[in-house]
TrEMBL record:
Residues 2-141 form the Carboxylesterase type B domain. This is (Mediterranean fruit fly) hypothetical protein. Keywords: Glycoprotein, Hydrolase, Serine esterase. One of its GO terms (cellular component) is extracellular space. Belongs to the type-B carboxylesterase/lipase family. One of its GO terms (biological process) is choline metabolic process. It comes from the Eukaryota. One of its GO terms (molecular function) is acetylcholinesterase activity. It comes from Ceratitis capitata.
Amino acid sequence: MTLFGESAGSSSVNAQLVSPVTAGLVKRGMMQSGTMNAPWSHMTSEKAVEIGKALINDCNCNASLLAENPQAVMACMRAVDAKTISVQQWNSYSGILSFPSAPTIDGAFLPDDPMKMMETADMRGYDILMGNVRDEGEYFL
């Protein structure tokens, strides 16, 4: 399989290339303007939980019930329309180049810090094409 991505998509391709979950499935990666060494390209599981709880509360589904009744919280979230979730997720936006969702260091797909994973990854057998997009990031200037 060959994956292509630009910006955040590029760092997602990078994550697929180093993840043990996709080992043997992805053989080629084309990455433009983003890798897993960018601070916005991934987050810790603790940060993901924090953002998830904020989204649950912002959708009026009461994250404090997660431990005792996760099914009720999930049922509430499933009843929330997609537009509301899309709008509310940005309440956890913490500044430029910080996003409310990103690949998460979860112990499975990303078992360790992506920089450590890239330093130790055996990339032999992969075809990788990297580059950048001319005006990448211009929106933020």
